[in-house]
Structures
1.
Amino acid sequence: MMHARHYKILMVLLAVFLVLAGTVAAQDKVKVVIFVGLGTGTDPDQITQQEALAERFNAAHDSIEIEFLIVPHDEAPTRLLAMLSGGNAPQLVGPNGISTIARFFDAWADITPFMEAEGFDTADFYAPSLELNRYPEKNTGLPLGLFPSFVIYNVDMFDAAGLDYPTADYSDTAWTYDEVRNRGLLLTLDSNGNDATMAEFDAEDIVQWGFSDAWTDTRGLLTRWGAPGIGRPTSEDYRTSTVNSEEWVNGLQWYSDGIWVDHFIPGAEQISSMETIGGSPLESGMLAMFYTHTWYLGEAILDLPFDVQVGAAPFNQKGERIARIHADNFTIPAAAEHQQEAWEVMKWLTDPAQIIDVCLIYGCVPARASVADDFRASLQAKFPDLNLDVIFESINYLDNPNHESWVPEWGRVNDALNNAGSLITSGAGTDARTVLDAASAEVQAILDEYWAGQGG
Amino acid sequence: MFNIKHWSLAQREAAAGYFFITPWLIGFTLLTLGPMITSLYFSFTDYNIIDPPVWVGLQNYTRLFNDDLFWQSLRVTLYFAVLALPSSLVLGFVLAILLNQDVPAVKIWRTIFFLPSVLSGVAVTLLWLMLFNPELGVVNKLLEEIGIKGPGWLSDPNWAVPSLVIMSLWGVGQNMIVYLAGLQGVPPDLYDAARVDGAGTLQKFRYVTLPMMTPVLFYNLVLGLIGTFSYFTQVYVATGGAGGPARSTLFYNLYLYQNAFRYNDMGYASAMAWVLFVVVLSLTALVFRSSSLWVYYEGELRGRG
């Protein structure tokens, strides 16, 4: 019979062996740290869901282990830069919007070699969504989720005015920006109930506005007006500013007139008030039509004291419908040590088996057509009265080149354009051509300096 | 050589002194001096944070002088300084004089006026954003009561900086408390002597209070000068880091921040930081230099006599 002391020693040795064996086994797995925080993914419930996702992945994989590194949104950019510059790059970063990818453009690896090496089939992804990540020099990642845009409107206000709703029919060519203006004027009311077409209408005392697209930047405002570069403010080779194209001038003048001449679009002051009242212009109950994206469809929409419905993006003055889109994906840093493993994880996250769950965490529409029906069912259960055809159809009209896409000196160029936009919305400038000519000169100077630094 | 028993008392005292300040010295070297020297090096490089810095000599500094936004940010900062600095100096002084009177519950009044200055800059800014809301804010509602249509405040390019100046006066209690300490240090016999000489209230203020308070004014001026050139948090919160509307609030530090962390142009941002350092140092030196003309030190005068 074994002596008790020997038995204890044996058990301790066994425990040590097991721990060591476990450590060795764990070391055999390559850890893929997924950096979360540049976009969505940092809410407490999202963190829990991501942990569950990690458990699911880790249970199913012997050679790769994933871990979500959650960083508060405000700290995320500097933390990522510190990790990249300190030689401690995460293996995967996301979910990232197109603008985030553009902002850190040089940091990402090109996934084209991984795709080509295994002949990766992209047929199931919405074809236009693949373009959102593709640049001349690299493909930054597989599409994960999309945030299509639409007009969300206050049904009660349309009923009260006796007006037709914004169309849900994408073949209805009568739904143009002129028509948005026409209905917007009739939906804009002063405190005496006069609408903006009436002579007695008091523009200093407006209590209800017709239309707003305030929650975007200047490129976002202008991407729908059919310029050759769509949402890109430069020529295709990124060397020449196209900021003052006829289409963009026309679009910005439409907004400027809407605010300062026709008064059916609220300016910066009124938007600030609406946000204070309701959190968003539509929720304030002071706006009839709000142009926005699917990320706007939260719980708050269900509790509004009025009915809402969604309509299609209008046709522009060239007879084209361009529906702005936002998109999320995961990217592999160029400095990541285990890029092959990160690619495997990226594929897994965007695989039809997981993509709905991943998109439900991040609130996006899965970029794969094969899961559209399943996802649609879950979305319809949440918003039973919304016309989801409008939302899914919008994907076919997305803006490409996208309004958030990379250009040289992306931050400086966007800030120059946003300054132009704020001149209009604040009333400091109301002539779109003057404003955009100045912005174009500024952007051209930025581009010239960039290309001079690149050796011409 | 290191036998402490052979050291003189002065040497031992010095050693003890150095020993006790060692933690601070280490902290200063690692957390202040080190980053300063590093940023000086970065200012001569093209450094995007992701890739290693590349030496470019004086290029960042020459680029500064051709950058319209650099000049715009300097203009905005100087405009703010010209409005905010005298306002806070004068208002703090006036409040201190009022609260130096023998009035009932004066300690409670002092606490009330000092309290805002200890609140977080972010919280106070958010509060002011609501107060300054053009249509719903209390400020415009009050103006409306007296028949004035209030401006757009922070959403109006012409009013954005004045709005920030008004916001900055919220923290004037900090200055006030320093003035108050100074006022209470003015020897009462000087007032007695002035009274005997027939001085009235204004003359006592002009010929006793003001000269005796010049060292405190000088102190608040220097700190205020540095503070206005470091202005950042409030404008970052109020404008979402954009410096709008129409770049009317593009303060120097905000533009520096944008270059460093939005455009990832750390070399250029470092050059901006060093230019700011030189500007503030020069202005502070000017103030110090001018102090012999207007700052009265009691001991100094006695020395001359």
Note: Residues 34 and 92 of chain A are 5 Å apart (CA to CA).
2.
Amino acid sequence: MEQMLVNGVVLAVNYALIALGITLIFSIMNILNFAHGQMFMIGGFVVYYLYGIYHLNYFLSLVAVVAVLGVIGYLFETCFFRRMRKVATREENSMLLAVGTALLLENLALSIFGEKQRGVPPVVTGVYRFGSAFLPANRLLVMLLALVLIIGLLLFVQYTRMGRAMRALAQDREVTHLMGVNVNRVAAFGFAIGAALAGLAGGLLITVFGVNSGVGNFYSIKAFIMIMIGGAGVVPGAILGAIVLGFAEAIGYELLPGSVTYLLILIGLIIFLLLRPQGLLGKPWG
Amino acid sequence: MSIFAFRRRKFLVWLGAVAALVAGSAYSQDVLKIGVLGVMSGPAASWGLVNKYCAQTSAQLYNEQGGFEIGGKKYKIEIVPIDDKNDPKLAVSGAERLTKQEGIHYIIGPNVDTTAASVQPVAEAGGAIYFPYAFQQALYTPPHGNAVLGMIASYQAGPIIYKYLMDKKGVKSVSFVARNESDPLNQRDQGVQAAKKLGLEIKSSNDTYEPGTTDFFPVMSRVVSNNGDLIVLSGVAPADAPLLIKSARELGYQGILATETAQDIKILNEVAGNAADGFICVGGASTPEIRSDYMEKFVDRYKKVAGEWNDEAGTKVYALEIILATLQKVGPDAINNVELFKKEIPDFSMKNPFLKEDKPLKYVGAAYFSQPRQIGVPMVVNQVKDGKFETLFIGSVE
């Protein structure tokens, strides 16, 4: 029971960090970033090379992740999605473009980084024991760092000028533009932050799970499930979705055979979406 | 410059080009194309890519010596790789392309039961022999005869490993954990049967994880709580093995962890670190103490082809080597006629070029498939010790 609770908390926090980036991009630009998992993967590889191979300080490696993924996100928005918004008449076009960018990143990664699973030494070692539950120190560190990042992002979105502009853009693009906000700049910045968050999640979790070139789709799918539960484009919804999925997995794996756990999660998701398609915190009108 | 001078120069250039073309075709070498069909992208990419890199490495080594000799003529070996993305539909279209468009009769792969089974009718209709790395017995059993298993199957390695652990380490009980996919689940079921036959107590066998899982703490919490002497990671992928091992050790598991599949020591070290110590898995000709000089040369070249060595390749070096050696023995007619190749299979034997020790390499598997339809890859059982593979014992399949 105690182990189940510990597993649930750890999964929920890790998942929340992954879901936040994709939610941010969706809320600002109405684009479901299918390449989110691939950006997570690149973040993992940046840490693998800087911290694992070249022995740079782990926290400096995370700073590098923010820079690299921020630039990638910025370039994706300015070079691909901005133009698509101008010329495309259908929403599916941006979705297809997003799928294309995911495939592009995955195949590039396979060519550059190879097919092997990669890993780095844990930043801290040791295992804590809470009653009958085990919690490795490195998982605890990752969880705490993820929590700090989540709180930092929420404060940024709530209280900074750019954060307010991003929220305004998420509510109404045209009105935001009429209010004198440089919409393109805010969109590019939002995409860069979303990509950097995905990369940071990868950079944190490589110390626990490792990374490989094909891992991206798995994380994208999990992120989609979380935002479907919480409500697409709603930041607190993403966190709620992460908590629900994290605990559903932890409880399911503890009490049921593994194959039944995900079967029940997916059946539950279908029933839930039939009853509340906008998710727990999403608005019925979108 | 007059127009005539210009035309004469142009004519001479054309004449030179035609002469070069004629000379080129007169000396052009015969090409023997070999297909590699397998998963080369996505999470399981390493399975198919290692097949491809092994074939390309062997081909390079032969081509540098002027080609591979069959019936007194040297053939340049050309590898034609196709990524089936672990999708049966793509495996079928890939096999059709290899057999119909490329005219290929010898294919290495595919990697899993579903893709290997889907390729069967195409290979049989197209007169091709294929070398899957899938364990489903029906593929190799009469009336089917065009598939040759490329490695040791889990149901062959499992009982031998369990028996060794019972005798040498006093193992009495076992838990199984498998990925929720057809191949690993089949391997788990076969492992459970073998363990029961040997008299091991089965502590648990229902625990599975979804493909793509990275956090194994929840699933391993349950497996570890059963407290078996041995945990078998059935059909585990190289990317998952170190994470499962690490989770088990972090949850305080003190027993033995083992699998019947091949793993890579660098991945185990990087991801699991010291937790991988004592882990038991299958290898091929991968540990340095058993490698021949030829294998050492192969490893060096493989590093250039793939960027780095992968211990999984130790079990996959054999396919192209045995295809070529069998063709050499039968003669050039077998290049386009696999029936001649099949006739040679029961009697074929050569010295295993990858092992230091003088051991034969032949087709085996009659005891399992009612006909020899398996490459007699030596069953090298390795254990991780101080970050390196150490050979525990070498077994064989007949």
Note: Chain B touches chain A through 43 residues (CB under 8 Å).
